[in-house]
Specification:
Two copies of one chain form a homodimer. Chain A is α+β, with helices and mostly antiparallel strands and 190 residues long. Helix content of chain A is 49%, strand content 23%. Chain A is globular, with a radius of gyration of 17 Å.
Chain lengths: 190, 190
């Protein structure tokens, strides 16, 4: 049982052992250097990526401005699932903020799993899509209603080490505020 | 073949006829009067709702302020899928803006479908969750980057009749602008 299998057993704990094993075995190990891109705007996202160790950020570019929509750390998935599902060019950029050790699953391999062991993997695919829906629904709600302090607290929820691993100016950019305002928020929200 | 079946054959066109038929048969017909609530904050959302005819809006209340996050018209699904999936109390309100004719599917019936005809319905559940993910991911991106004009154009995309069916002050509220600003946007974006 490798490390990936260990994490998947925890994440997909309602699934049979053999389903989790086959899922983990379909991933391939890769490494990226700090600053390298996992995905660039205009490319097709053909992989799901699970970060074993490392930090990445996902951002859009619009009219010359950078909009950060996500940071991902150890034991989290990162992908442009929209491009992955619709086979359309991505409008996201995913960049490594640290050297990264990851496991990747190709779209082709996932579809093979759906076909060969249909019900179990369709369920696994459903659960993954449901989890992604929950995450983005929550994010959308937060963008609609929350102020910068509330968005900061939600960002570091369950990821207390995030401010130590991601430069402060990027977190400020994510929140749409100045680094000085972020310092104030961090001081008052400890 | 009833009207619901007809719509589902179009929406789920990659599925076998018998899967679509069984799915449509699990829904029950209901009617709601204008002003009535399909769901109120604090309640559990135990149903998926497909609007055959009518208009609904979905909103949150936070610190006494109303935040509209969605309008739904004929032939669209509406639900609090987060509450539905996680069996937790909803923090949304879903209200009818017109008299509504709808079809509802209970969580219990959907789970029965997953169990009895496993692979086909798991796939259908996966496709539904993927579509919802795509929709909320796009919404989240729009909230992050788009101005009111861009958000208005996306709102009425494929739903040109929306401004005729939803009061202007509610659309302005959705966009976070005054009704006067919305008038200007509508005049310049025709």
């Amino acid at each position: 049982m490798n490390k990936l299998h260990e994490h998947f057993s925890r994440i997909f704990n309602s699934f049979e052992e053999q389903t989790v094993t086959a899922f983990a075995q379909a991933f391939n190990y890769k490494e990226f250097k700090k600053g390298e891109y996992l995905l660039k705007e205009g490319e097709y996202c053909n992989h799901l990526t699970f970060i074993l160790k490392g930090a990445m950020m996902c951002y859009y570019l619009k009219d010359g401005k950078q909009y950060i929509d996500e940071f991902s750390l150890d034991h989290e998935f990162i992908t442009d699932y929209t491009s992955f599902l619709t086979h359309s060019p991505s409008n996201k950029n995913i960049q490594c903020l640290e050297d990264c050790k990851v496991y990747v699953l190709s779209n082709e391999s996932l579809n093979q799993l759906y076909q060969t062991n249909s019900a179990n993997f369709e369920r696994l695919g459903r659960v993954m899509a449901e989890q992604l829906y929950l995450q983005w629904h929550e994010k959308s709600k937060s963008l609609l209603m929350d102020n910068a302090t509330e968005r900061y607290l939600k960002l570091i929820q369950n990821r207390a080490e995030l401010p130590q691993r991601v430069p402060q100016y990027l977190i400020a950019e994510y929140l749409g505020i100045t680094p000085e305002s972020l310092s104030r928020i961090r001081k008052t929200s400890v």
